[in-house]
Amino acid sequence: MNKHPLRQQIEEIVKLTDDEFDFVLQHFRKKSFKKHQIILHEGDYAQFDFFVVKGLMRVTKLDFDGKEHILQFGMENWWITDAEAFHNKTKSTLIVDCLENTETLSLSLESKEKLSRELPKMQTFFLKKTTNGYIALQKRILCFLSSNANDRYHNLLTLYPGLIQRVPKAMIASYLGVTRETLSRLSKIKA
Amino acid sequence: MNKHPLRQQIEEIVKLTDDEFDFVLQHFRKKSFKKHQIILHEGDYAQFDFFVVKGLMRVTKLDFDGKEHILQFGMENWWITDAEAFHNKTKSTLIVDCLENTETLSLSLESKEKLSRELPKMQTFFLKKTTNGYIALQKRILCFLSSNANDRYHNLLTLYPGLIQRVPKAMIASYLGVTRETLSRLSKIKA
Prior knowledge:
The structure is a homodimer.
Chain A (H helix, E strand, L loop, with lengths): L4 H7 L6 H8 L2 E6 L4 E3 L7 E7 L2 E6 L5 E7 L4 E2 L2 H6 L6 E4 L3 E7 H10 L1 H26 L3 H11 L9 H8 L3 H7 L5
Helix pairs in contact in A: 4-5, 5-6
Protein name (chains A, B): Crp/Fnr family transcriptional regulator
InterPro entries (chains A, B): cNMP-bd_dom, cNMP-bd_dom_sf, RmlC-like_jellyroll
């Protein structure tokens, strides 16, 4: 029998007994969404962090001119939310929507904190995942500082293998902060 | 008596007894460095995460052309290291050096993990600090995506109050990924 994808991800960091994983899973709620559905609107409270079981979501920022910037994609086995609004219980400044029909496991902040308290190895898991996310963002910033769009493009291919076949080119360009023309040039350069 | 700055920072997130803080402090080693001293060279292992008690450090990336990009500053009450090399026990791709004489408390990964295991509220502290760092990096990326150098400049003023008086303008420009001329223009615009 295949291991549950959430259990598989947790067990890359800490081992769980069957009972412990059952306990973990009790803190999540299954939520399914349709393609194009908006899961979190700007100005709403971000009640959940979503673990993507199947499908594809994204986090977007609309700037003052109405231009859309893609902060993050979330496909299978990724966690996705407005991190600031979720953790600080503030109103969201970002938008979360679905690019495909998507199945998730959703975790509230209260459940995350309860899990962390009652099963400290889950806190070890959350700390390791957050640290990895922090390191990935540092790399993305270094690519911006060196103004190297080619590095950014290849980082994206490494970070999200398979993504490029699933989303329109305009969204990849938005994530990279480049024009469609630059993206087209980048996709012809070998790493 | 003034509270120890490390204790003050921890207690913004979790409360500690005197005995617990003594236990925490036993895991740190005092290390002092001179202005211009390089604490971590590219290619070295990052043995420590540094809590800055007094002074000013920075993390830099040298690109292939020898151009210097500043990823992070660390002044009083900041944590600073090559996060990837430190957490993954890999060779550093970044450089950490001192812009002023600097006093730190240094923590090894082994000590961080031991503290997290033996005093779970310290893991809660590390998780909250890392989450806050993750959120700050997301904001910096959004400023890059919207290509808004003015936002980046004002984010820097908020993130590091007082920094701008302590470092050369060229370093501020390097952190923001702008030219000296652009920085000069930005510093004349009111927020």
